[in-house]
């Protein structure tokens, strides 16, 4: 497993990050999660991503328990704050109160003294940006957080935070952005990627497999696999079923010979594609089985030729979404490549 520098920071992250959104605490139990974590470590993955809102804290607890006994300095643990973790008026957002309390709770659940990269999970329109930035900076000064990041922020929101941090004279700055990014969903390319390249912010791209669509497991006109996310419990089906359509699935099948010619599976091709994009430091991939972890990990370190990238674009065509206006709306917006199952 190769490692890359996160933006212009000195932090090195493995090209594949193990993430536990929609898995730990929802789709997998403790033993299954532990086996996946072991597989990740065996594959050379050193970066692990979670958030306080995942399974309402259960994901952080499982990750913390699974990493016990592993040398802490060899790991990079990222977590996030902003989305609702309770019913109270202060159990959400990026106020100083919620940031400070959520960080302490995450540290307890993760069984660690510090979080390597602490990210603002979404932008908070209610809270002044300076309040958020000062709270984050204080956590860095206290040694509870080492680096700061954002997730699903627009380019103007990121730029305003960078400007404000400079005006306030804060020593800590944003070094990472965690966006949804894959062959189909490229909305960060027009505005966010150029800004981040200029400002030294690295991408920790999640959903490189488009919720499993780009693995080829969902064949056009076929029943979904029993052990897939589309047939799973919890919130997974609501996320995956909204993007499964005949046109999309047929196009994904057309990618199979391109992957085979490169000696890759469809999943490995999808991961290699994201890692080939400018500014990407790591791809965040979840798994419910150790075998999936191993396959995903081998998608790293596989550079793609320009001809392969061109053929991918030709196959996907109009299914590719590059609309920057959809940044920060991925939870609500139906992607342009989503079609009816019939």
UniProtKB/TrEMBL annotation:
Q: Which GO terms describe its cellular component?
A: cytosol
Q: Which SUPFAM superfamilies match?
A: NAD(P)-linked oxidoreductase
Keyword Oxidoreductase belongs to the record: yes
- In its UniProt entry, what is this protein called? Aldo/keto reductase
Q: Which CDD domains match?
A: Aldo_ket_red_shaker-like
The entry's keywords? NADP, Oxidoreductase
UniProt cross-references to Gene3D superfamilies, sorted A to Z: NADP-dependent oxidoreductase domain
Question: What InterPro entries does the database record attribute to this sequence?
Answer: K_chnl_volt-dep_bsu_KCNAB-rel (IPR005399), NAD(P)_OxRdtase_dom_sf (IPR036812), NADP_OxRdtase_dom (IPR023210)
Indicate the segments forming the NADP-dependent oxidoreductase domain, all copies: 17-315
Q: Which family does it belong to?
A: Belongs to the shaker potassium channel beta subunit family.
Q: Name one GO molecular function term.
A: oxidoreductase activity
Superkingdom of the organism of origin: Bacteria
Q: Which PANTHER family match?
A: HYPERKINETIC, ISOFORM M (PTHR43150)
């Amino acid at each position: 497993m190769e490692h890359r520098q996160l933006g212009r920071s000195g932090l090195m992250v493995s090209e594949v990050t193990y993430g536990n959104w929609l898995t730990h605490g929802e789709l997998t139990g403790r033993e299954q999660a532990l086996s996946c974590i072991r597989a990740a470590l065996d594959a050379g993955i050193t970066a692990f991503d979670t958030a306080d809102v995942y399974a309402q804290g259960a994901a952080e607890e499982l990750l913390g328990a699974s990493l016990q006994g592993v040398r802490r300095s060899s790991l990079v643990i990222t977590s996030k704050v902003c989305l609702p973790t309770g019913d109270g008026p202060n159990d959400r957002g990026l106020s100083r109160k919620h940031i400070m309390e959520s960080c302490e709770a995450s540290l307890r659940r993760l069984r660690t003294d510090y979080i390597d990269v602490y990210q603002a999970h979404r932008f908070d329109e209610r809270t002044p940006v300076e309040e958020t930035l000062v709270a984050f900076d204080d956590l860095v000064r206290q040694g509870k957080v080492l680096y700061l990041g954002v997730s699903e922020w627009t380019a103007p929101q990121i730029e305003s935070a960078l400007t404000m941090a400079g005006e306030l004279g804060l020593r800590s700055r944003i070094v990472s952005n965690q966006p949804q990014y894959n062959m189909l969903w490229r909305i960060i390319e027009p505005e966010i990627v150029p800004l981040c390249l200029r400002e030294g912010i690295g991408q920790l791209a999640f959903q490189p497999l488009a919720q499993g669509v780009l693995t080829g497991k969902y064949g056009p006109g076929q029943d979904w696999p029993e052990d897939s996310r589309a047939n799973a419990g919890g919130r997974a089906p609501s996320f995956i079923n909204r993007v499964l359509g005949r046109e999309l699935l047929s196009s994904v099948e057309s990618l199979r010979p391109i992957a085979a010619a490169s000696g890759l599976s469809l999943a490995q091709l999808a991961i290699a594609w994201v890692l080939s994009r400018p500014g990407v430091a790591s791809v965040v991939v979840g798994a419910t089985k150790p075998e999936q972890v191993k396959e995903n990990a081998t998608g790293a370190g596989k550079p793609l030729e320009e001809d392969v990238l061109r053929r991918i674009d030709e196959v996907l065509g109009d299914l590719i979404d590059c609309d920057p206006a959809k940044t920060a709306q991925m939870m609500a917006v139906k992607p342009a490549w989503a079609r009816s199952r019939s």
